[in-house]
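Crash report, auto-generated. Payload:
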Amino acid sequence: MSGSMKSSIETMLEILQEKAQKGIVFDILNVYQRLTLDVITRTAFGIQTDVQTNTKSSTLRAAKLVFVTPYRDAMTFLGLSLPILRKFCMGVQDFISILLNKGQKPFIMLRRGIRKVMEMRRNNPKTKKNDLLQLMLDSSVAVSGDVDVSTLEAGNAELETAGSEGSVRMHFDHLHEIMFTNRYALEDVQYEDIHIPKGTLIQAPVYLMHHDPDFWSEPEIFDPERFSTKPNSEGITYLPFGVGPRNCLGMRFAQLEAKLALANMVYKFHIKLDEKHNDNLEILCRIRTLTPAKVRVKLEPRNEGN
Ligand code: HEM
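Recovered output after restart:
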């Protein structure tokens, strides 16, 4: 391991070591969430935070609030079902998140942090680093007439594409939609007996596809090898990172991080599921993510030879 990712994983291992020594049962999802936030803030946005070591970190609080809204939330339901109420519903959700985030809109707070780093990098070449943010900053200077990535920031970002025919501005509303495996029908489509009118937003039911017995044998059984083997049928049946030219830009990065974190953890500890844990994980369906409610485990340090 090397670089920022290594140092974030080492911090996680120290936290786990402490928990293993104390022999306590804890929610490992929470530890992973803090690790992934630490890695992304360091590597993509060049910001060093205390999200792993400080459970009261304001960055951690803001980032969690961005992802917390449940799919079944009344405001989300209303906003999606009645587009006329969409702005109002988003306003109510914003208001609640501002209250929970102690007076600041979580998106704006995170964006401000990134902006500061961007200004620092632009104004002082000595602060340049070899990371994703620098790549985006450099390409925004080098490539004229292409996407101005300096306007692509987390949260209420505006993505501006300056082309020969003028400028197309996309607000966060649109960015939000392209971050998921959603596609708009650009024209009327007839798929077998289903008519899809132009402009319809189609969302791929990823969770259902990954749990469909037509595609995968015994899909509810925990089987770490499942997606390494071929599905029961042909076609696109595995798409955690989307598919096509707009699939996930960070796929390899995310997979590398997950593998490194898991390999290091398994190398150092035996992982035991808490006895009180229900057999089935409770899955929470948020508007931006799908996560288990809690994954309660206990770790035992591995001695040499076991
Ligand atoms: C386990 C972690 C991750 C998962 C499951 C995931 C999943 C996805 C999915 C499903 C999409 C939509 C793809 C589509 O519509 O076909 C997407 C898009 C995207 N992801 Fe990820 N992602 C992950 C981590 C990351 C990371 C770490 C980064 C950045 C370093 C990243 C950057 C992006 C970007 C920029 C897009 C938009 C691509 C485009 O529209 O062209 N993702 N991701």
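Post-recovery validation: The chain has ten helices and eleven strands.
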